[in-house]
Write a structure and sequence with these properties.
The structure is a homodimer of 336-residue chains. Chain A is α/β, with parallel strands linked by helices and 336 residues long. In chain A, 35% of the residues lie in helices and 24% in strands. Chain A contains eleven helices and 16 strands. In chain A, strands 1, 2, 3, 4, 5, 6, 7, 9, 10, 11, 12, 14, 15 and 16 form a 14-stranded mixed beta sheet that branches. In chain A, strand 11, helix 7 and strand 12 form a beta-alpha-beta unit. In chain A, helix 6 runs parallel beside helix 7. The first copy, chain A, is globular. At the A-B interface, helix 3, strand 6, helix 4 and helix 11 of A face helix 3, strand 6, helix 4 and helix 11 of B.
Chain lengths: 336, 336
């Protein structure tokens, strides 16, 4: 039987599999270091649509179709979809997934949504509630800038601590059917506020939540960093990574040797002008699907801890002077 | 073992209990027909805070505290909280629940969120992932008007089809410990678009999703409307109710005798000027907690189907000319 372990974690007795996954990204992501690994790179970030929001919906639709296709499944084979995005009222998801007519659990975990969706889909399949469930998320540079900061057309200057929202969508089929990777456990985070108020420094806002989650995860599972081939955060970037290493070291865990960050992997900051790194729900989702999951599937990595993090703010909360607390979800993925 | 039944439903082998619940509402709700039933009525809709958003957070905090208190539980006893609200990036939830430090799954299902939260919390407890989980949601008239329509200070005219967003928060402790009511099954909806574009007529936008869900639920469970003491929608209001009855009748089910709508129950439209009725995540959550759940707990009602519905729109999607599709989640609650 699946066990509640420690304060924040579950260890699955019968681990659900990641049967397939897919990544769809925009032009800039296609030009980055991982460019050749993505399943689909669109020449135009509009994805054939009229608005940025619809473009993001279109990416979700494509990512879902590709992930289902790789597993030879049709929408009717998927019992539940767990999905969300960064936009107010998660409209990219609502409009992107409508035509599939799959029962939907809509999620919001900011950029940690990929971890939340994988966690809930794994819980669902492990309990026998579904044979196949889809975990899916997205972000789009232009829709996110419009949502959280300024319209892209304003050509605002960006500080060095700023991250660049990834235009991308990642989808994962979680299944009771055997695949090459499995989700063996999850650690679910709490909202953590260290008093950061700078919406142009998301790495600093989210690093404390990531540090708490990683430390609690290691305690809950009674493991050390070396028990993992990699601990992979979502989008802390260079600024957040430094803070994360320091905070975990303060707790007695040196993760610097095995830490990777999807936001650092996805762009070449010198060549692409992406400052601290990539960010957004799509950053961790597409990088996991295209870069890290294949390494687990091939056995090059035996066990990874995937920790996407989110910054809990809206334009309203920010303008009203609230802090920017962070959130994190941890997912243990192992070779099957 | 819990069974997947029909296309959209689960029947729990060991049904989780609703151990306790609580409702916190604003002044106008306290003056309505259900006024005396709510656990807490605040004289001021500010709940002692400086902004409408923080007021909503404060309501969530109070509702959670009351629900935990009634079950003699502390935050550390709650393994997971499933929660969401109507605001962009669900900030009422992020800021409302932070201090409890309970692992959080953030949700967005518009006004159907109460059903989504109850469904996921029930799935979680039924699988043995938690002994106690909290399902919680809220809405606030002023924060919602600002989010979706116009600031209240503009004193806009409202058409007769408009609903009045309830200022309220409802919280439910879902538990493996025996209570007086239990969740025996769920039906999870799909996003349904019948082409409605009027953001001042949410009832019409959501009624098709409710009708599809109710019809599919009855088919999945092989039941008739008479197998329920009540089928309770969240916030269709008078306009949506008429459409719902017609759509379900077209499918061969007459639900008019047993249909109730939280949006119709919570306000006196003649006396309170609430047009088509109440709406918002808090409408269904507080009305279930204060009005219907006690009837199930006392045995006056043996079995109800609770169907909160949501309208999937944002200010951006609406201004970009998109339709307003609907969503619904069904939860079967029975006397224990």
């Amino acid at each position: 039987m699946t066990q509640q372990i420690g304060s924040w974690s579950l260890q699955f007795a019968e681990a659900p599999f990641i049967l397939s996954s897919a990544s769809v990204v925009g032009k800039k992501e296609g030009e980055g270091p991982l460019g050749e690994l993505f399943d689909m790179v669109c020449d135009s970030d509009k994805f054939g649509e009229d608005s940025w929001e619809q473009s993001e919906s279109s990416m979700q639709k494509e990512a879902a179709a590709l992930a289902m296709g790789k597993a030879s499944l049709e929408p009717k084979d998927i019992r539940y979809v767990y999905a969300g995005d960064l936009l107010g009222q998660t409209i990219a998801t609502s409009f992107g997934l409508m035509e599939y007519e799959i029962p939907l659990f809509g999620l919001y975990g900011a950029c940690s949504t990929c971890g939340e969706a994988l966690s809930l889909a794994a819980m669902c399949v492990a309990a026998g509630y579904a044979d196949h469930a889809l975990a899916l998320t997205s972000s789009h540079f232009a829709s996110a800038e419009k949502q959280f900061r300024f319209p892209v057309e304003y050509a605002n200057q960006r500080p060095l601590s700023a991250t660049w929202t990834v235009t991308g969508s990642g989808a994962f089929v979680i299944s009771s059917t055997k695949g090459k990777a499995k989700i063996t456990g999850i650690t679910t985070g709490v909202i953590t506020d260290y008093g950061v108020r700078d919406s142009m420094n998301m790495g600093a806002a989210m690093a404390p939540a990531a540090a708490r989650l990683i430390v609690q995860h290691l305690k809950d599972f009674n493991r050390l960093p070396d028990d993992y081939d990699a601990i992979i955060t979502g989008d802390l970037g260079y600024v957040g990574q430094e803070i994360l290493w320091k905070l975990t070291e303060n707790e007695g865990y040196d993760i610097s040797r095995i830490h990777r960050d999807c936001g650092i992997e996805i762009f070449d900051k010198d060549r692409q002008g992406t400052q601290s790194g990539g960010s957004g729900c799509g950053c961790s989702a597409t990088t996991l699907s295209a870069c890290f999951l294949p390494k687990v599937e091939s056995g090059e990595m035996k066990r990874i801890l995937f920790v996407p993090t989110g910054a809990m703010l809206s334009q309203v909360s920010f303008n009203e002077g609230q802090n920017v607390p962070g959130m994190a979800h941890g997912v243990v993925i192992e070779s099957a």
